[in-house]
From TrEMBL:
Pfam families: Thiolase_C, Thiolase_N
Domain Thiolase N-terminal: 5-257
Full protein name: Acetyl-CoA C-acyltransferase
SUPFAM superfamilies according to UniProt: Thiolase-like (SSF53901)
Enzyme class: transferase
All residue ranges annotated as the Thiolase C-terminal domain in the record: 266-387
Length: 388
């Protein structure tokens, strides 16, 4: 069986996804194309050798519609012969792209594939693809007659179920900003980032953030409708302990081990194991718990074998509940900060986590890294890498 290896991974700095953000005037296809070109430049590969470009995007409407990965490959100057496809597993779209790329390599269908992702939340606002329509249909309504909820309300339910108070959530988020600011100050992100449009660092990181500042923010999802449905719920989720709205892109070059050797490419890690799970769509964001269990079982590893974790910080209680259930050492989790500080450009975040995790393993000398991503609808992807 062919071994899938990671040759390199690169991301843009993450911009604020709003008017006035660094990428507000950058078309998402061009943002995506930037990381594809950067990956080719960094590795020296002939793009004509790429068997497929698999790109993730969540808002597949407007400027991100019509198979945006194909247009990004063409905008990047790749030969017309290089195919591309766009996938949507919500926030895990580019992590799923990585899984598909690795599966293609392992199956012998690919020698080289790029897994990538983009999200321009300033130009394709969150929720644009549904436009207020019922995208689940009557069958789901019959199965869940009380109705499902937005992700923010799911985060509230998680915080209550796991006993995570507002102070703990705000402390977690302040720590994320501090870690990200320290990582930038110490150059720990430099190897993974390719600047765009004058932006050289992540725009949402606030070095001066403290729990006291975050404590002054109002709750984001507390309204009369949800208060009637959940009368005993203590509302805790704010803009400060959630991931912000962002723009960004990231890309990963996946190769067969023999193909990499033949082409003179030096692999940084192998894709050791991967898994995807479904979970309760009401709580929605808890799938990272069974996904972690599943991928570790497949890998034949214990939690203590993992040297570094990247757990997407969609909301602070997601990671804190995962830590409670798994017993993971917080000192190994998101050591360079996470999405509450760095940002969460939905379709790009999975590949962004990979770029960060590979650098953390190399900077710390760790062998195994695990990344896991919660996704809308009660889904989660998990991946274990082994540094080479």
């Amino acid at each position: 069986m062919t071994t899938a290896v990671i040759v390199d991974a690169v991301r843009t700095p993450i911009a604020k996804g709003r008017p006035g953000g660094a990428y507000a005037d950058v078309h998402p296809v061009d943002l995506h194309a930037h990381v594809l070109r950067a990956l080719v430049e960094r590795t020296g590969i002939d793009p004509a050798r790429i068997d497929d470009v698999i790109g993730g995007a969540v808002g597949q409407v407007g400027e991100q519609s019509g198979n945006t990965a194909r247009w990004a490959a063409l905008a990047a100057g790749f030969p017309e012969s290089v195919p591309a496809v766009t996938v949507d597993r919500q926030c895990g779209s580019s992590q799923q792209a990585l899984h598909f790329a690795a599966q293609g390599v392992i199956a012998g269908a690919y020698d080289l594939a790029i897994a990538s992702g983009v999200e321009s939340m300033s130009r394709v606002p969150i929720g644009s693809q549904s436009l207020g329509r019922d995208f689940t249909g009557p069958g789901v309504g019959e199965r869940y007659p009380e109705g499902l909820v937005p992700q923010g309300v799911s985060a509230e339910l998680i915080a209550q179920r796991w006993g995570l108070d507002r102070g703990l959530l705000d402390e977690f988020s302040a720590t994320s900003h501090r870690r990200a600011a320290d990582a930038w100050a110490q150059g720990r992100f430099d190897a993974e980032v390719s600047p765009v449009n004058g932006l050289r660092t992540d725009e949402s990181v606030r070095p001066d953030t403290t729990p006291e500042i975050l404590a002054g923010l109002r709750t984001a999802f507390e309204d009369d409708h949800w208060k009637r449905r959940f009368p005993g719920l203590e509302w805790r989720i704010t803009a400060g302990n959630s991931s912000p709205i962002n723009d960004g892109a990231a890309a990963v070059l996946v190769a067969g081990e023999e193909a990499a050797r033949r082409l003179g490419l030096r692999p940084r890690a192998r894709v050791h194991s991967f898994a995807v799970v479904g979970d309760d769509p009401l709580y929605m964001l808890t799938g990272i718990i069974p996904a972690t269990e599943k991928v570790l079982a497949r890998a034949g590893l214990r939690l203590d074998d993992i040297d570094a974790f990247e757990v997407n910080e969609a909301f602070a209680p997601v990671v804190l509940a995962w830590q409670k259930e798994t017993g993971a050492d917080p000192a190994k989790v998101n050591v360079n900060g996470g999405a509450t500080a760095i940002g969460h450009p939905l379709g790009a975040s999975g590949a962004r986590l990979t770029a960060t995790l590979l650098n953390v393993l190399e900077q710390t000398g760790g062998r195994y890294g695990l990344q896991v991503m919660c996704e809308a609808g009660g889904l989660a992807n998990a991946t274990v890498f082994e540094r080479l």
